From TrEMBL:
GO terms for cellular component: nucleus. The lineage of its organism: Eukaryota, Viridiplantae, Streptophyta, Embryophyta, Tracheophyta. The keyword Kinase does not apply. Keywords: Kelch repeat, Repeat. SMART domains: Kelch. The keyword Repeat applies. This is F-box/kelch-repeat protein SKIP11-like. PANTHER family: F-BOX_KELCH-REPEAT PROTEIN SKIP11, GALACTOSE OXIDASE/KELCH REPEAT PROTEIN-RELATED. Residues 1-97 are annotated as: Disordered. It comes from Panicum miliaceum. Residues 51-63 have a biased composition (Acidic residues).
Amino acid sequence: MDLCGKREDMALQGGDSCLTPRASRGGCEMESRWAEGLLEGGGRKRRAPEESEDDVQEMDEVDCGGKRSKPPSPQPHTPDIREAHAPGRRRTAAAGGGGDLIGEIGWDLSINCLLRLSRSEYGSVASLNRDFRSLVRFGEIYRLRRQNNISEHWVYFSCNVLEWDAYDPYRERWMTVPKMPPDECFMCSDKESLAVGTELLVFGMAHIVFRYSILTNSWTRGEVMNSPRCLFGSASVGEKAYVAGGTDSLGRILSSAELYNSETHTWTPLPSMNRARKNCSGVFMDGKFYVIGGVTNNNMILTCGEEYDVQSKSWRVIENMSGGLNGVSGAPPLISVVKNELYAADYSEKDVKKYDKHNNKWITLGKLPERSVSMNGWGLAFRACGERLIVIGGPRTSVGGMIELNSWVPDDKPPVWNLIARRQSGNFVYNCAVMGC
């Protein structure tokens, strides 16, 4: 369940960690008032001993007045999340602040209420007591959200080397991500990015991966693939990410594929595709991983796609799946999936298309936003963001330009794009990823 527009239509039932359609408003209103009171009454006043506000900020947030809060510092030991469910830990919560609120309705219902909050509030939640801080700090709150099919999608993108920004479309605000550590690998080489779980991964050609975690609001060195690559196709689902194809540091085009688990920070080899390809794109749809388009040796364009069945662990070629969506000198196919339907941005004609699964063909729905400017597709981002499509790009001039975010909820009618945000930028969009958690 995407929180945008959906939270008001669901209610929590009893103490179970599951969501059910709302039967009556009384219980849900009580939970909502409790959650709001938890933050307003204790959010920024009660704090566990030896915990400062620096410890709980998820990100360097910029409010409407331009003020920025401090990024967090590395944390000392915090209680294991399993201890939080023990009776002794509940008593400790009272000493840490907020325990009286937990005592009124119980731990399980408290957690259910917290799951319904926007994740932008979790910095305040973590400041209430050590148990809540443990839930947020170790990512347990996000695992519970996944189990209950609750998510918010934030857009992360880079318009400058080593610099990333984030945009929260639910609260319509920009956030500054800490700057990436300097490395010459990212100064002049192609780099790739993907968001998985609570992490943003950025890949360089020379066996370098940097990992940004929203749990710590910091960058660290990430685990390298078994076969490092760039220009690959990728897709994420929950805490897992799939990558396939691409090219290695010697320029060889790859058919290999790998699976990344953000919980264990491990890469696992998968069976190789039938065709080696680079400059391709990936999506996850109907429980399967698709790699679409790209080029193979001698710059031969591939119009076929490949489908990876995660159950049978096998690949299937789908002929002519990307016909007309890519060229040799252009960007990889700009594709995204919303509600298990595949959409594409045809950057040459500025069209939005939908894939007809049954007839294996693309149907033109309408146009991209008028000011979505690109150079053969480069500099334009086309992403799924919950139940809507997002186009990120904008007009360029000799003295700079504008980054604009336009959104549309697909409905099989001609797209009507809504401008949801814009800001000045000296460059176009280098990399973009959407994190849903």
